[in-house]
Amino acid sequence: YIPVDEEHPTQPLQAYGREKLAGEEAVLALAEQAVVLRLAGIYGPDRHSGAVYNFIRAISERRPLEIAEDRAVDMLYVEDAAAAVLDALQEQGVSGVYNVGFGQSLRLSALAVEIGQLLGAEPNLLRGSGGSEFYMDTAKARAAWSFAPRSHRLALRSYIDWIAASEEGTKYGG
User: How far apart are CA 158 and CA 152, in angstroms?
Assistant: First the structure.
């Protein structure tokens, strides 16, 4: 079911997911007041890979952008993830598992269009079929410590500016 809440059945299909779940279970078993944050896909400064980074590069360089499966995903800007970690650690009485994401899905093609708008460039999309949808129910985190991530537009603008500053000699909009 969507959105995925903290009570959603956990049945990871891949080793990476099984390792993450085992880590969650170990932490929760060791400490009564433990906090586990399940983070959405992270993007932002110091990340030179991933869909958002690759989309910014392709669109800014006017290269075709292939989206094989136009999935709808939940993403989180790295600074919002860091703020959530700090807030969860500082809030009294917080324990258990919390979803930390934007709390809405965004199609990869819509992400490319938004990046194109920020860069002033029309993305040359080569789009495959529609895809799956995933996003987190973040109501528990929002209630526990007033978690509120910034808009994708503001986060993307910050990331584009960071890329422009860190990768001199290439124009990334501005």
Answer: 10
